[in-house]
Write a structure and sequence with these properties.
By secondary structure, the chain is of the alpha/beta class. It has 20 helices and eight strands. It binds a DNA duplex through α18, β7 and β8. Involved in regulation of DNA replication.
Length: 500
Amino acid sequence: MTANDSPSEDGTPNEERDQSFAVDVEDVLEDGMLDETDSGSQGLFDDLLSGEPIFENKEVLRPSYTPHELPHRSDQINKMATILVAALRGETPSNILIYGKTGTGKTASAKFVSQELEQTSKKYDVPCEVEYINCEVTDTQYRVLAQLANKFIEQNEAHVERRLSDLADLREAVEEGVTAAEATPFEDIGGIDSRVDELEGELEDMEPVPMTGWPTDRVYKEFFEAVDYRERVVVIMLDEIDKLVEKSGDDTLYNLSRMNSELDNSRVSIMGISNDLKFTDFLDPRVKSSLGEEEIVFPPYDANQLRDILQHRADIAFEDAALTDDVIPLCAAFAAQEHGDARRALDLLRTAGELAERSQSEHVDESHVRKAQDKIELDRVVEVVRTLPTQSKLVLFSIILLEKNGVHNVNTGEVFNIYKRLCEEVDADVLTQRRVTDLISELDMLGIVNAIVVSKGRYGRTKEISLSVPIEETEAVLLADSRLSEIEEIQPFVQARFDN
DNA sequence: GGTCCACCGGAAACCGCGGAGG
DNA sequence: CCTCCGCGGTTTCCGGTGGACC
């Protein structure tokens, strides 16, 4: 449905704000209930606000939420920690490559570990930083480098400004009579001033990299210098790293992985996160070996593990006793069928809760979960159909027209005839039957239609095609396409053909 | 058993397009 | 700037096929 529900792993850093916001909403809910009993007047929203609230904090169920505990991932987390602890000793940690399908907790675990790492580094005052980049959003070498460069330039600026204010304090102290030599390495105020000038000069040089326009090697140089500006260990987290390689090759990774040999002050370590287990096949062997020094695999969750995860989050997300007992096992079972995707399971649970809320029932029960499953499935289909290429839409529409006229298990020939006529109607070029059979097979792969080859003996051999999605909704989506919306007159034609 | 329908699906050629490279 | 190459989508060509019917 909306963009919010799309399964993107965007790392929006405003969870805390969202949570506090969610709490405010709950407060409003309470107030609303009181007001209603007082005044007795029924406004538009009063109905919706009345009744028991089901959610206590819905944000916990959203994909962007980073949990503080990740059940069944302690092995992976510990392994990451044992590798990254080198950073806290000032050594370079090995590069890490993390594999796992969507919704197996890769990003969440990695973010959790990096938060811990940064906190610990502050505690012991070891300079160590983690930079997160989502390569699906930042998908070219230039953008990756520019983003990193700007992050570090910004930090360096802050660092220099801090030093400047320290020096200003010091200058004051010296003027008040403390001998400079006692407190500082500077001999007198003149020494401090010249150091201030020096730093201000450096500050001048730190300009951010523009989002476009520079040659890539200049951006690289800029990034390199920003990182090497002072002593530290930097962990670069590249999420969806397979997307980056797919779209812009392995140059970026090559450059990043050989940086260490040229850096004087700092150390860089790369942490790649990939959905695709085989993506290293496309890499330069040198990059492959340096990047995959350590590999961590995140296997899909099974139904029991999913149940733990859901239980864990549901405790926070829902009001006490808002869920009936079978809700969580059912969500877990559904999601386990879908390759153990935890995000999917959480989505299901949240949608079930929303449906319950909307229908104003006091509990979330099994029926809501089933409805939620249907709704998510429908949303998926709508999305797939909506983004289909025009030719495929025409083919699908032909099948729908036939189906609507009571022809089930249509064969390729019939579909092709209708399709041809449709093409004339909307002024699209007509593809060959050969090609149309391929399109039908694609629709089959997407689960929109079901096509099996059957032999009708004497009367040939063909695909029997039947629709496997709800007719009305799908048709509505197709008609929403500007090119297909003009079709209306085709109905009599199908009828005529059918009469033959 | 042979025929033959009506399409399947592999192979290869073709065609426009965009991007790398001269 | 032009040229060439690779690529995805498409067309052309064609051999293949399971089983109802003769």
